[in-house]
Amino acid sequence: MTRLIFLTGPGGAGTTTLAAATALRAAAGRRVLLLGVADAGELAAVLGATGVSGDGDDLDIDQPDLDADHPSDAHRTALANLTVRRFDPAAATENALVDLAKLLSGPLAAAGLSAPDATELGPVPGLPDILALREIAKAVGSDEWDTVVVDGPPLKAALDMLAWPETAAAALRRLRPIEGQAARALRPLLAGLVGLPSPFVMVTQWTEDAAAEIAAVRSALAHPGSVVRIVGSPSAAAQPLLQAAPTLLALHGLRADTATLAAVPRADDEPLGVAALDALGAAVYADADPSPELADPPEPVMLADGDDYRYELPLPGVERDQLGLVRSGDELVVSVEVPGVAAHRRAFALPGALRRCRIASARIADGVLRVGFKPDESLWPERFLTDHSEDTQTGDQ
Question: What's the rounded Cα separation, in Å, for the pair 217 and 179?
């Protein structure tokens, strides 16, 4: 299983330097991709890269700090196993908008309308984050690398980025039933319009493709070999977000590691080049493997509690006054609000048994939100109530 290490931290905490050191350390015994998704040239400067190679956005690494004739065996092995790639959000966004314009051109032309130019579709808020996550998912899903190390954006932006898959999945759950009902209602009319592409066919295809993309991203971020590793900072201003990060990541079903990089050794001179980064990696990880151990991500579980049920959601570090809980149809919407940080929320699709129950209690204990549910006959399907009523009448006679 490909391991994923997503590094992030407050601005100026040294995330890029530690991502490079982590990747070099991991590359001592396995194939590693170091992917910069918010890179504006920092990775090249930290690693001593001389330019972009002819293969995509991979970086060529120069080593002025090593003896070219007698490089160490460890450095030679690490460099042979390491691929450094930068994700260009501007180029990726432009390509995505061009593809979208092509997708729209067919149905619009059939309706006698002109297709928009790609420049007329942008900018689309959040699109660079979506494309970056898709790039991460592709890397983790391939068998090219054993470990993928991501140099992520600053912590607040990273939390927003990592929340996207669950937010998008919840939006699709609401869209798809509406789309299906509209398609069924208009099918007789659309059947008579021979040769005219149905907009609902396009919407259905789009939602199916989007659901597959979201599932792939979700799988990459939340599988047992993935972890979000957070770089610590001595800044007092950064502490509220650093303390809230494990809670917010757990809300979205992601493993957080705040301990490994909580107190990174600081030096007067910034580590630059492979030899200095290797020394930093040795100081941080010592003899430990920088790749994460396999472990289940934090996800809710439903437990029987006598005749009732209990829904448990891990939320380490959450305070009661930060928490919001709302039942919305067949979903349980949980929100966490941290002072100075935008609130995060996630809509959990309730298991079938809980959809026929009402919320009876909710409490926080030991970093776990426990929601109690009681069966409620008023929420049962009507035919079940009818059958039950008839059985009761028969038994009384």
Answer: 23
User: What b/e string do you get for 65-104 counting C-beta neighbours within 10 Å, with b at 16 or more?
Assistant: ebeeeeeeeebeebbebbbbbbbbbeebbeebbeebbeee
Helices (H), ranges, the chain: 15-26, 42-47, 73-81, 89-110, 118-121, 127-141, 155-191, 199-222, 239-251, 274-285, 352-355, 382-396
In angstroms, the CA 239 to CA 237 distance is 6
Q: Identify the helix (H) or strand (E) that includes residue 226.
A: strand 226-230
Q: Residue 349 pairs with which residues in a beta bridge?
A: 331
Q: What is the pTM of this model?
A: 0.83
Read off the pLDDT of residues 57-104 as tens digits, 9 standing for 90 and up: 687 765 544 444 445 667 777 788 889 998 888 787 777 777 766 666
pLDDT of residue 12: 86
**CA distances for 77 relative to 68, 82, 114, 353, angstroms:** 14, 9, 55, 54
Cα–Cα distance between 91 and 87 in angstroms, integer?
A: 9
How far apart CA 311 and CA 297 sit, in angstroms, is: 16
